[in-house]
Amino acid sequence: MEKDKYFHSVSLDRDECKGCTNCVKKCPTEAIRIRNGKAKIIKERCIDCGECIRTCPYHAKKAVTDNYKKIFDYTYKIALPAPTLYGQFSTAKDINIILKALKLLGFDEIYEVLTGADMVSEATKEYLKRAGIKKPVINSACPAVVRLIQIRFPNLVDHILPLMSPVECVAREARKSAVEKTGLPEDKIGVFFISPCAAKMTSYINPLGLEKSELDGVISISDIYGECASFISKLEADEDLTKATASGLSWAISGGETKSLNIEKSISVSGIRNVINVLEELDDERIDDIDFVECLACTGGCVGGALTVENPFVASARISQIAKNYDISYIEKGSIIPEDLMLEKEIEYIPVMNLGKTMKESMEIMAKTQQIYETMPRLDCGSCGAPSCNALSEDIARGFAKELDCVFKFKEKLNFLINEMNQLDD
Ligand code: SF4
Ligand code: SF4
Q1: Which CATH class is domain 355-426?
Q2: What percent of the chain has pLDDT over 90?
Q3: Per residue in 224-259, pLDDT tens?
Q4: How many A from CA of 29 to the centre of ligand 2?
């Protein structure tokens, strides 16, 4: 996959797009416009939340992930299943059956991402005890939320937990141990994440706070679901392959990460609109008595990811049921310190929402936007291809759209011309 600073997993199938504007209205960062009858994603603004994939009635929005056959490019193949996978199969009450099915797909070894979740939980507990850190600390496990903060909430960037994601922790361990175990060179070992969401694909291409991802690919849960399900129906749990813990499993569900930290002054929020509301309140310093905020872009947490198959509430109930069979965590208290999992680079603000290149230019465009907006019908109908009258006013002020893109303005102009012609006729 080619490196691109603004690579996004979420993309458009132009042939399927009908220009209906459903996705335009649902995008939380106003990253979509209709141009020449088709949706266009402004890639700087997209956070890969997957809302447009869920919304599009014509399935024109897709997530680009790796085809699972890519694993056969490697001699030794390692699967890193997200805990969300365990809630997808009605017939699999035991995780071992699901892991066995993954092996039948062709993987040589499985490293469960939930073990990384336990490591991050332990390191976070230690991190939260440190003096001088900005509170509340905001979790960094959801790449869509981190990206949202980077582009829209510059004041909150240094509240983001500066630790690697569970999947990167596990990928690092898996590769190291496979090299020792097999004696193979690193490039013969393929490490693949089985992902519930598009944002994880984007963070593999452009990893947050890391020079390079330890992954060799990201496969969507929906891509392997069918084949896995067909194996599962014939398998029995006669091998102990899982290292599951109740705490690691709970990371698939909103509130799981917070619960694993066992701290009182914390909140958990899921669903991108709810996340934006909470971040706005944090930005305005209206929330001041909280130490930790868990934000997950998908409703219900990762179980609500756009690349899953099962209803998120059903998947969530299944995972909670499975978790009852396991210990809370196997990680010894204090055995992992934040330095073990620290990001290599600072997470930075990305000023893509600025209207102009300089403050002066931005102020001028803002004033012009306001002037144009005053003349708009302010119905936010979306017929122009922008999400709101304000967004169209901004596009006009920046030179990306014309006043007559507004259907009401167009009608006004047409009526005016007809009147003029009638008068001339008279
Ligand atoms: S929802 Fe968006 S991508 Fe889907 S058909 Fe409508 S305009 Fe096109
Ligand atoms: S993935 Fe989210 S942010 Fe990106 S275009 Fe779709 S709705 Fe907008």
Answers
A1: mainly alpha
A2: 88
A3: 999 999 999 888 878 899 999 999 999 999 999 999
A4: 7
Token reading at 401 = 């759209």
Q: Which residue's alpha carbon is at the smallest distance from atom 1 of ligand 2?
A: 48
Check if 40 has its Cβ closer than 6 Å to any atom of ligand 1. Answer: no
Q: Is the CB of 30 under 6 A from ligand 2?
A: no
Hey, where are the domains in the chain?
78-189+206-341, 355-426
Task: Using DSSP bridges, classify how beta strands 38-41 and 32-35 pair: parallel, antiparallel or unpaired.
Answer: antiparallel
CA of 63 to the centre of ligand 1 (A): 14
Contact 275, 153 (CB under 8 A): no
- Taking only the tens place, the pLDDT of each residue in 332-389 is 777 888 889 999 999 999 988 888 888 899 999 999 999 999 999 999 999 999 999 9
Q: For ligand 2, pick from 9, 41, 146, 149 the residue to mutate: most ligand atoms within 8 Å of CB.
A: 41
Ligand nearest to the CA of 45: 2
How far is it, in rounded angstroms, from Cα 232 to Cα 224? 12
Residue 214 backbone dihedrals phi, psi, to 5 degrees: -85, 0
